[in-house]
Automatic annotation (TrEMBL):
Pfam families for the chain: ArsP_2 (PF11449)
Organism: Ellagibacter isourolithinifaciens
Name of the protein in its database record: Arsenic efflux protein
Keyword Plastid carried by entry: no
Keyword field: Membrane, Transmembrane, Transmembrane helix
Transmembrane segments: 20-36, 57-79, 85-106, 113-131, 201-220, 232-255, 261-283, 295-317
Length: 318
């Protein structure tokens, strides 16, 4: 019984820690999105369209900062269509999660860390630009901001009781120029709405993280290490799949095994490319389009496996 209580306390402590540090990222992100909806009007639409082509470059550079909070923020912004899918992919691929702390603790040379991070940024930029470019070539229509849609779904009523906006969310961004459709889109506090969104997502992340930590604590990170270490022929594929686990344990195990020499550079690179912390968790919560989310996961997996295979085939050791 004492052992069970110890495990329960350990799981609860880690789940709270994993969730708490995301709150500032989520709140700032939702605050910015609420401001875009209420204050910027359709000017925001035009500005985002102009900046869209450079999005993957900016996203990949920001994503490399050692915090998976950026991947959570990017997923939220994509759900509101503030950024393109290419920018989201760039952020998710470049996110380093727990890699840097593990490498620093193991005294991995800074040149090695820099090379890995640089390669992640390059892959993120190339994949993001390519994806956005392909969508433009296919003449896919540019999507309107969907911040208002997120508000309606979460019942925050941040635009008051506007039935026209409920039926046609894009009208929320056109109030400035349509005199016939004019009302107070900032009727409720922007801060209050952002807090409500943040609280809802935080509760969701905490519950799922708690369940994941229970499984990982029960099965153990050693089991993950054994799965990765016992499939040397398929290590790149297996590492990429393990990287999809929306928990810092994935990047910790992959980085540890690379430091210990169990994983090769290709498998390590594939796993750490795909490992985006809770970014995917937030994506499935905020972007209620399961098919779209699964396609994004598939793209991440394919890019990770291909990049890892190239590193292995080329004999790159970073």
């Amino acid at each position: 019984m004492e052992e069970i209580m110890h495990i329960a306390g350990h799981v609860l402590e880690h789940s709270i820690e994993d969730t708490l540090y995301l709150i500032p990222f989520l709140f700032v992100t939702y605050l910015a999105m609420e401001w875009l909806e209420h204050k910027a009007g359709d000017k925001a639409q035009n500005a985002i369209k102009r900046a869209g082509k450079a999005g993957p470059v900016i996203g990949a550079v920001l994503g490399v900062v050692p915090q998976c909070g950026f991947s959570a923020a990017a997923s939220t912004l994509y759900a509101g269509r503030v950024i393109t899918v290419g920018t989201l992919i760039a952020v998710l691929l470049s996110t380093s999660d727990e890699m840097i702390p593990i490498f620093l603790a193991a005294q991995v040379p800074l040149s090695t860390m820099g090379a890995i991070l640089g390669a992640k940024v390059v892959v993120g930029i190339v994949a993001g630009l390519a994806l956005d470019g392909v969508l433009r070539l296919l003449h896919r229509p540019e999507e309107h901001l969907r911040i208002h849609e997120l508000c309606q779904r979460d019942h925050c009523h941040c635009n008051g009781e506007c039935h026209a906006c409920e039926e046609n969310p894009e009208l929320a961004y056109e109030a400035e120029k349509d005199e016939e459709h004019h009302h107070d889109h900032a009727g409720a506090s922007i801060v209050k709405s952002a807090l409500k969104h943040t609280a809802q997502v935080t509760v969701f992340i905490f519950i799922v993280t708690l369940l994941l930590n229970v499984v990982l604590e029960t099965v153990g990170e050693d089991a993950l290490a054994q799965i990765l270490g016992s499939n040397s022929a398929l290590s790149v594929v297996v590492a990429a799949i393990v990287g999809l686990i929306p928990n810092c344990a994935a990047s910790v195990v992959i980085a540890d095994l690379y430091v210990e020499g169990v994983l090769g550079a290709g498998a390590m690179f594939a796993g750490l490319l795909v490992s985006a912390g809770v970014g995917l968790l937030v994506l499935f919560r905020a972007n209620r389009r399961p098919k779209q989310n699964l396609i994004i996961v598939a793209i991440l997996l394919v890019v990770g496996i291909v990049a890892g295979a190239i590193v292995s085939a080329a004999g790159i050791v970073f």
